[in-house]
Amino acid sequence: MTPPSILCIGSVLWDIIGRSTQPMPLGADRPGRITMLPGGVALNIAMALARAGHRPALLSVLGQDPEGDALLAACANLGLDTRYLTRAEDLPTDRYMAIEGPQGLCAAVADAHSLEIAGARILAPLYDGRLGGSDAPFQGCVAMDGNLAPAVLASSATAPELSGCDLRLAPASPGKALRLVPFLGHPRAVFYTNLEEAGLICGQNLPDAASAAQLLVAKGAARALVTDGAATAADACATACYTGQPPSVSVARITGAGDTFMAAHIAAELAGQPRDGALQQALRSAARYVSGKDTA
Asked: What percent of the chain has pLDDT over 70?
């Protein structure tokens, strides 16, 4: 089988999402719908890339439990390369639970403890020759998320095995944004954050996406893409800063929107889109997803 040209590294789990159309203040108990579907940052990005015609490979951990068996089968059915997934007999399959209301995300809990405990085990294919090694670094595109253990992320920032790839980084959540700080100064690292995450990485509140993207670059990011909900988004590097306005849509869902934006942007650039065109395409894709008009 042909080796993969795209790797998605990080969380692969079950999303359990409760949505209500009624307001959800703290402590609210409302009628709604609860869905369970494949999710996690790395898997969300991989699924969106697959819909764009790619076949990314997943590097993550699944338990040897019924939930892991079902998720492995779902990933294969979605056209993803599951050859390099780690199956851990001592760990359960991870889960993410969120509550969403008409105002957006109310609360979420990410149980990615198995991914953190598995640590560097999930990266073994990059080191043992299956996907590369220190003398033959992986040369394709790598999307990596901040759900990985801090020590694994820190070592990955200087790993020779990742020195030759097109490296794309997502914090996964504001609570894990600082895990990406070791990649500041990496010559190939492209950061994808929202405004809050950018502010946490930079250590200050920032007024808008353009300011945030430019400051991330000033602090060592090779390139930074920053979104700010319905406000202007930005893509900055050392020599230029592009901005784009997301389409106005009614919000039907939130979880996975940032992952959809990142995957659509990667797909657009792999297809040869210029930077301003790729940014606009990613914003349109994220808007369709948020509106509920795109495939989950």
From this structure: 99
Q: Is-contact 5 267, C-beta < 8 A?
A: no
129, 141, 178, 244 from 154: Cα distances, Å? 22, 19, 11, 32
CA distance 237 to 256: 25
Sheet of 189-194: strand order equals 57-59, 6-9, 141-145, 166-170, 189-194, 223-228, 231-237, 241-244
Are 259 and 45 in contact by the 8 Å Cβ rule? The answer is yes
Helix (H, G, I), strand (E, B) or coil at 82: coil
User: What local confidence, expressed as pLDDT, does residue 295 receive?
Assistant: 53
| Among 280, 199, 170, residue whose Cα is nearest residue 235 | 280
Per the structure, how many domains does the chain have? 1
Residue 123 belongs to a domain with what CATH number? 3.40.1190.20
Place of tokens 């405990």: 117
pLDDT tens-place string over residues 125-139: 999 989 988 888 999
Least Cα distance to 147 among 117, 112, 174 occurs for: 112
- Reported in sequence order, the residue ranges of the chain that DSSP labels E, i.e. its strands, are 6-9, 13-19, 33-39, 57-59, 61-63, 86-88, 95-101, 104-111, 141-145, 166-170, 189-194, 223-228, 231-237, 241-244
Q: Which domain holds residue 57?
A: 9-291
190-221 in b/e burial notation, b at 16+ Cβ within 10 A? Answer: bbbbbbbbbbbbbeeebeebbbbbbbbbebeb
One-letter amino acid of 82: T
